[in-house]
Amino acid sequence: MNLSLKFPEIQRYASLAIGRTSPINEGQRRYVRVIHAVLAAFLGKGVALLVGFVSVPLTVNYLGAERYGVWITISTMLAWFTVADIGLNNSLTNMLSEAYATHRSDLAQRCVATVFWMMCGISMLLSIALAVIWRWVNWSEIFHLSSSLARIETPAAIGLAFAIFVLNFPFTILPKIHGAYQEGGIANYWSAFASILSLIALVIMTNLQGGLIALVCVYVGIQLVVNVVWAFWLFGYWKPFLRPSLITVQCDILHRLCKIGSMFFIVQIAGMLLYQANNFIIAYFLGASQATPYSVTWRLFTYTTMLQIIILPALWPAYAEAFARKDIPWIIRTFRIEIVANTLLTGLLASLLAVFGISVIQRWAGPAAVPPQSLLAWMAVWSVIFVIISSMSCILNSSSRLHGQTIYATLTAISNIYLSIVFVKSAGITGAIAATVISFLIFNFIPSSIETYLVLKQANH
Questions:
Q1: How many CA atoms does the CB half-sphere of 437 hold within 13 Å?
Q2: How far apart, in whole angstroms, are the C-alpha atoms of residue 198 and residue 136?
Q3: Looking at CB atoms within 10 Å, which of 141, 280, 323, 425 has the fewest?
Q4: What would the pLDDT profile of 250-288 be if each residue is shown by its tens digit?
Q5: Distance CA 114, CA 389 (A)
Q6: Domain chopping of the chain, boundaries
Q7: CA dist 139 → 66, 76, 106, 213, 354 (Å)
Q8: What angle do CA 86, 178, 126 make, to 5 degrees?
């Protein structure tokens, strides 16, 4: 399998992307849909970054340090609860892509209905669990709140945030549906619209001196309202054949979705442990102050991988549909373009940050966040490894080759935690990222490379 990249191919696909050449086959039309989704994702990410940039000083100034800390903790808790979908959203992407490729609108409708009502059931269970434990939780003690205003607002804000979260939970399938039909641009436009509304509401709220509860209504409530409107538009106008009727829920579809979803769930849990463990290990063994330069440097280097993060949701369903159509040459051609372009771009940006990162961090976050030079070098290596592994994972995910990934992810997470503890004690915060790089190279990069090669070779034959 030749993964070399030829310049004429880049020219041809660049012409398609900017509209100078019309697509003449399904592979080229698929490529154009991916490009449009990526461009829309850049718009959505740009709006989200603008909202985040503007919202931080606004919320910090009117909430104060203590209540802002509560809000950040609530946001983190809600992010963790997204794994409660037990991998159903990711498995829906693969099955819907297969239904789209084979023109099975009946199968697509059953898949959407099954996942939607399953998510409604999970929402009910989460609501019951929260209602049971609520009376036993003293939120003021958990957050160590000192001000009377924070003690009054926090329980109500947390309850409201989780109530809106469980109501919004079934609607998390909406971007997955558009992604499976290679309409990622539509999903990104809706997300950008929600971000703009949140920013407008935030500005109004700060002028009216709203509190923590008002902040929850703005950031979580507006997303729910937009998703409800989005769902009515999607199922009532854009794709009415996908309307999730309860009578079309099927146990055999649910069994297949859960079988694939359970493996996605294991990978998700391992990934969360992998990416969150280092900060806790550094704070525990070296003190919380040492976690600041590590987390700031990590966040800075994530921008070097932004192209991969943006392109992945568009490529995943495109690969899945191409696998269903057995269009393996398109997959191989696109994969080599993706992996070469992302590796070169990330390598260039990461190298620049490895050289000039200290000056950037000092001006951006202040002297307390300045890391050692060795941390920048290891972060640059990690960034390149990340985009390569993500490209290979996209191939494996879209072909539903998940058994190996559950093993790789689990072993990588265990190795990372163990090595981080050992290396942090001897090498400081640099030891944490060194442990991550070594763990990924041994337990993930090598086996993923072999499996990706075998999957593409077998499919090509």
A1: 17
A2: 33
A3: 141
A4: 888 888 888 877 787 777 777 777 667 787 788 778 876
A5: 31
A6: 22-249, 252-461
A7: 13, 15, 47, 15, 42
A8: 30
